[in-house]
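thought: user wants a sequence for this fold. calling inverse folding tool.
action: design(structure=
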């Protein structure tokens, strides 16, 4: 049976890119979760990070986990239904084994999707601490994605809801508690994070909201690209004549939000400012009544850049893009295997520069939305806090990207305050060092750090200076735990799964 997706038509190249992003290959076993009914008697199922309409033999309750085997047949990938595990509150259903075929050209949607609060909460105030489910600002651009790909002279304004219209914080929630950085909910005034405040557990997203998020992911995957490709071009283009003032203003805003390391070092204040302005907290800041902060972040700058370019260039043909870097995924180790900034042959004509800027702006926006999706709380894991983001960084004259993941671990009810802490993982790729990264853990006053480098000489340099790192930690009142240097990136570990948690192919 053909799987006719409930989402807009995508090109065969985009469809193949999505399948590659999901790492589907014959012989693999994947899990899918039933999101709800789809048109024509089909069932909307999320597999990995993509939602598809599957024709199942029986009606299946929302939340049912399906085990599917990936097969190759007649030049197409096929999914064979192996098993089903119903939600805890639903009696098991026996589904006969069957096979379905993945279509490369999904059907057009039957009607527009709307994104709003559940019935009965219109006008309600934002919850003070808890992270929320669907981000209106993440999902809302989905409806405008066609216009985003082919901007017209009458471009719509940046997709930023006024604070009065916000019902609940959207995207990864932010909270200011004492001296806690933006986005680190639950971290009290104690800078060591030894007494985090537990946020109430949120229910899983309803089917329509989960489907809207899945639609956003499906549309963003093929075109997502590194923001470093955009910032490198902006750094060269700002001083050139021919770009209109709205574009230059947006360019300056994007560049002002990047990290700078003129002497090869980044201080804590600059890092905190870059985290706050990364763009993944935009809708949450709007919902909490901080429009000025939201309007100055990277996402607002990208939206303003797209609008300014659209008004200047007019209608442009759609650009068929294939992602060249892996999409951001929750619980996956940040990597920077290839430099994020490609070689650039700067065009001579201003309009050619504008078209290239538009392409890279769209790619950066798509990736930022994927980061927001990967940063949403997981109800099945007690709304465990995790934030994924890319921070553009200028190291001298070189443009790079810091792939960053912040994780609040040990937050379960069975753990005491002394067992809770924070973990930061990052990776970047620099000309003089190659790919480097670190994992930093903080529990109470104790911190442990693992540094890794892809090149032998860089790993040796880290090892030779490890005692300097130990002294620096002690100087700020921290107790160094294990300080480890390794050659090569640490191996990937499988993310812990729970009922309702989407997993990619098992190997």
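)
observation: tool returned 507 residues.
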């Amino acid at each position: 049976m053909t799987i006719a997706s409930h989402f807009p038509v995508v090109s065969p190249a985009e469809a193949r890119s999505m399948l590659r992003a999901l790492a589907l290959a014959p012989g693999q076993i994947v899990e899918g979760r039933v999101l709800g009914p789809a048109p024509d008697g089909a069932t909307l199922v999320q597999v990995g990070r993509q939602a598809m309409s599957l024709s199942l033999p029986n009606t299946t309750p929302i939340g049912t986990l399906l085990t599917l085997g990936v097969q190759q047949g007649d030049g197409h990938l096929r999914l064979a239904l192996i098993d089903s595990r119903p939600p805890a509150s639903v009696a098991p259903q026996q589904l006969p084994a069957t096979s379905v075929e993945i279509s490369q050209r999904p059907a057009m949607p039957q009607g527009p999707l709307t994104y709003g609060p559940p019935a009965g909460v219109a006008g309600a105030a934002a919850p003070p601490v808890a992270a929320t489910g669907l981000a209106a600002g993440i999902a809302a651009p989905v409806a405008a994605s066609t216009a985003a790909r082919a901007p017209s002279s009458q471009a719509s304004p940046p997709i930023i809801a006024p604070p009065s219209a916000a019902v609940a914080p959207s995207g990864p929630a932010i909270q200011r508690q004492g001296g806690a950085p933006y986005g680190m909910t639950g971290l009290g005034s104690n800078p060591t994070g030894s007494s985090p405040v537990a946020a109430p557990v949120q229910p899983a997203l309803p089917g329509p909201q989960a489907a809207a998020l899945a639609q956003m992911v499906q549309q963003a995957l093929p075109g997502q690209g590194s923001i470093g490709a955009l910032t490198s071009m902006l750094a060269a283009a700002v001083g050139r004549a021919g770009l209109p003032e709205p574009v230059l203003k947006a360019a300056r805003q994007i560049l002002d939000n990047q990290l700078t390391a003129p002497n090869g070092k980044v201080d804590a204040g600059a890092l905190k400012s870059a985290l706050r302005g990364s763009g993944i907290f935009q809708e949450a800041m709007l919902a909490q009544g901080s429009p000025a902060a939201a309007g100055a972040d990277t996402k607002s700058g990208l939206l303003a850049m797209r609008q300014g370019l659209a008004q200047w260039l007019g209608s442009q043909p759609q650009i068929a893009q294939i992602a060249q870097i892996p999409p951001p995924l929750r619980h996956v180790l940040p990597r920077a295997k290839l430099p994020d900034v490609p070689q650039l042959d700067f065009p001579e004509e201003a309009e050619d520069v504008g078209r290239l800027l538009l392409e890279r702006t769209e790619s950066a926006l798509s990736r930022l939305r994927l980061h927001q999706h990967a940063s949403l709380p997981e109800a099945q894991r007690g709304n465990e806090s995790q934030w994924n983001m890319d921070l553009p960084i200028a190291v001298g004259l070189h443009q790079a990207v810091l792939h960053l993941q912040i994780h609040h671990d040990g937050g379960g009810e069975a753990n005491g305050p002394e067992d809770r802490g924070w973990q930061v993982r990052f990776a970047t790729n620099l000309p003089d060092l190659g790919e480097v990264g670190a994992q930093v853990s903080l529990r109470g006053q104790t911190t442990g750090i693992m540094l890794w480098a892809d090149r032998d000489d860089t790993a040796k340099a880290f090892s030779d200076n490890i005692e300097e790192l130990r002294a620096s930690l002690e100087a700020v009142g921290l107790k160094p735990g294990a300080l480890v240097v390794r050659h090569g990136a640490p191996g990937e570990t499988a993310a812990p799964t729970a009922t309702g948690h989407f997993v990619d192919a098992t190997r």
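thought: summarizing for user.
answer: Here is the designed sequence. The first strand starts at residue 2 and ends at 3.
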